[in-house]
C-alpha cells in the first residue's frame, strides 16, 4: 500500500512541476513553493492523511489548469475583439 501511495505522490509532484513552468510569478517561485509544501508533509505516515493531501494536490492541478485557460482566453479575447 505504501508503494502505491508513493507512486501517486511522485506522479502528483511531477505533474505540478510540469504545470508550474507557466506560472505567472515564474517557474522558480513555483518550484520553491512546491518543494516546501512537499517537504512540510514528508513525515506523514497515515495513509488516509496522505490520500487527503493527494486530493488537495489534484485540486491545485485543476485550479492551475483553470488559471491557464482563463489567461489564454483573455489573451485571445484581447487580440480579436
Give structural notes:
It is elongated and about 50 Å long. The model has no long low-confidence stretch (mean pLDDT 91). Helix 1 runs parallel beside helix 3. By secondary structure, it is mainly alpha-helical. The chain is 81% helix and 0% strand. The chain has helices at residues 2-19, 27-40, 47-80. The chain has three helices and no strands. Belongs to the complex I LYR family. InterPro entries: Complex1_LYR_dom, Complex1_LYR_ETFRF1_LYRM5, ETFRF1. Residues 8-61 form the Complex 1 LYR protein domain. This is Electron transfer flavoprotein regulatory factor 1. It comes from Anser brachyrhynchus.
Brief account:
Residues 8-61 form the Complex 1 LYR protein domain. This protein is 81% helix and 0% strand. The chain is mostly helical and 81 residues long.
Structure keywords:
3 helices, 81 residues, elongated, mainly alpha
Topology (SSEs and partners):
Layout: H1 2-19, H2 27-40, H3 47-80
Helix pairs in contact: 1-3
GO biological process, one term: negative regulation of oxidative phosphorylation
Organism: Anser brachyrhynchus (Pink-footed goose)
Domain Complex 1 LYR protein: 8-61
Alpha plus pi helix count:
3
- Give the overall form: elongated
Q: Estimate the strand proportion.
A: under 5%
CA(first)-CA(last) distance: 53 Å
Total strands: 0
Radius of gyration: 15 Å
What's the helix-strand series? HHH
Main structural class: mainly alpha
Give the uncertain stretches in residue-range form.
Answer: none
- On the 0-100 scale, what is the average pLDDT? 91
Largest sheet: none
How much helicity do the residues have? Answer: over 70%
Amino acid at each position: 500500500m505504501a508503494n502505491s501511495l508513493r507512486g501517486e505522490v511522485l506522479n502528483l509532484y511531477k505533474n505540478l512541476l510540469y504545470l508550474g513552468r507557466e506560472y505567472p510569478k515564474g517557474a522558480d517561485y513555483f518550484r520553491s513553493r512546491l518543494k516546501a509544501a512537499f517537504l512540510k508533509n514528508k513525515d506523514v505516515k497515515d495513509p488516509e492523511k496522505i490520500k487527503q493531501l493527494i486530493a488537495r494536490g489534484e485540486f491545485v492541478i485543476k485550479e492551475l489548469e483553470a488559471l491557464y485557460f482563463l489567461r489564454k482566453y483573455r489573451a485571445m479575447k484581447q487580440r480579436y475583439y
